[in-house]
């Protein structure tokens, strides 16, 4: 696979223009209680626990173009690099990745079984269910070039999110990168967008500031960008990129 150049800077003007043109209301974080509920698994949302329903739902929401952008322009993985994907779900991302060494982790054994079944013939892919404490002891997760949480941290409260971030910190090589991609409330946001996001299974969607504070509580180097129009429900997300040190971030490729 040809090596890609990875854009490091985003067009803030374009991003801000898109936010401003769709903004119709302000979001008041104090009207939501962060950290209380974790994940809603009841009612209609319970069927998302079925891997095929989860995949179908993703197609209906039209996430494909955004997922490809995220892989190409943010993850920028190369053959042979090691990716540890925390909260991988059925690991559909793997279909689009180069020949990386992939370790998919999830608390849901159902998702992990589905990922194993789908990718049983793919070399270099391992899947583990369990918890962050189990994974921290497993050498399979050591020395990662990239640790990813894609749509995971908004399912957990601050204490559990910090455990995942600490796990990521220790799993990374010195010059490795932790990337998180999570729904994010803006201080001024379309009411429809904020409404749909409030119905998410994950009940810990944080504001821009809260995401930054959370990531900075573990990683000394954190940069963030806002992404709008992520899916057909008008989700707003934050891409966070974290490193262990500035020296490592400038010396890595
Ligand atoms: C919205 S799905 C995202 C799945 C996948 N990353 C993707 O992009 O399709 C959230 C995932 O986080 C997992 N999850 C929730 N809490 C977790 C935790 N504490 N540790 C690991 N995974 C968790 C869920 O089981 C689910 O697979």
Q: Can you give a write-up of this model?
A:
The chain is an alpha/beta fold and 253 residues long. It has one domain (33-251): Rossmann fold, CATH 3.40.50.150. 34% of the residues lie in helices and 23% in strands. The chain is built from nine helices and ten strands. Strands 2, 3, 4, 5, 6, 8, 9 and 10 form an eight-stranded mixed β-sheet that branches. Strands 1-7 form a two-stranded antiparallel sheet. Helix 4 links the parallel strand 3 (101-106) and strand 4. The model is unreliable at 1-5 and 7-36 (pLDDT under 50). S-adenosylmethionine binds at residues 86-89, 92, 106-108, 111, 132, 150-152, 155-156, 160. The site of S-adenosylmethionine has 16 residues, from loops.
Helix-strand layout with pairing:
Layout: H1 12-22, E1 25-26, H2 51-61, H3 64-75, E2 82-86, E3 101-106, H4 109-118, E4 125-129, H5 132-136, E5 144-150, H6 158-171, E6 172-185, E7 188-189, H7 191-198, E8 206-207, H8 208-216, E9 221-227, E10 237-243, H9 246-251
Parallel strand pairs: 2-3, 2-5, 3-4, 5-6, 6-8
Antiparallel strand pairs: 1-7, 6-10, 9-10
The protein binds S-adenosylmethionine.
S-adenosylmethionine binds at residues 86-89, 92, 106-108, 111, 132, 150-152, 155-156, 160.
Q: Top keywords for this entry?
A:
10 strands, alpha/beta, Rossmann fold, single chain, globular, eight-stranded mixed beta sheet, disordered N terminus, binds S-adenosylmethionine, two-stranded antiparallel ribbon, 253 residues
Helix content, binned percent: 25-40%
Tally of DSSP β-strands? 10
Assembly state here?
Answer: single chain
Present as ligands are:
S-adenosylmethionine
Rounded to an integer in angstroms, the radius of gyration calculated over CA atoms is 17 Å
- Tally of domains: 1
Q: Judging by the overall fold, what is the CATH architecture?
A: 3-Layer(aba) Sandwich
CATH class: Alpha Beta
Tell me the number of helical segments per DSSP (H or I, 4 or more residues long). Answer: 9
- Biggest beta sheet summary: 8 strands, mixed
Percentage of residues in DSSP E strands: 15-25%
The structure class reads alpha/beta
CATH fold field value: Rossmann fold
Shape, please? globular
| SSE string, helices as H and strands as E | HEHHEEHEHEHEEHEHEEH
Low-confidence stretches: 1-5, 7-36
**Ends distance:** 17 Å
Supply the CATH superfamily name. Answer: Vaccinia Virus protein VP39
The residue-averaged pLDDT reads 85
């Amino acid at each position: 696979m040809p090596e890609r150049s990875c854009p490091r800077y985003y067009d803030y003007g374009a991003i801000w223009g898109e936010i401003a043109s769709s903004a119709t209301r302000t979001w008041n974080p104090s009207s939501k209680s962060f950290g209380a509920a974790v994940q809603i698994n009841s009612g209609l949302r319970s069927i998302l626990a079925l891997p095929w329903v989860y995949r179908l739902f993703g197609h209906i929401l039209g996430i494909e173009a955004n997922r490809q952008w995220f892989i190409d322009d943010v993850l920028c993985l190369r053959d042979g690099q090691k990716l540890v994907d925390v909260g991988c779900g059925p690991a559909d991302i793997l279909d689009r990745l180069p020949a990386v060494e992939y370790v998919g982790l999830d608390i849901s054994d159902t998702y992990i079984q589905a990922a194993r079944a789908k990718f049983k013939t793919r070399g270099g892919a391992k899947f583990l269910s369990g918890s962050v404490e189990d994974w921290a002891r497993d050498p399979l997760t050591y020395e990662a070039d990239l640790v990813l949480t894609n749509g995971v941290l908004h399912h957990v409260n601050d204490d559990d999110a910090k455990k995942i971030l600490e796990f990521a910190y220790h799993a990374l090589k010195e010059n490795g990168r932790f990337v998180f991609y999570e729904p994010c409330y803006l201080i001024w946001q379309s009411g429809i967008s904020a409404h749909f996001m409030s119905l998410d299974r994950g009940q810990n969607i944080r504001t821009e500031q809260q995401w930054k504070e959370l990531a900075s509580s573990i990683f000394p180097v954190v940069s963030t960008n806002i992404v709008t129009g992520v899916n057909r429900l008008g989700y707003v997300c934050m891409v966070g990129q974290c490193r262990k040190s500035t020296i490592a971030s400038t010396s890595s490729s």
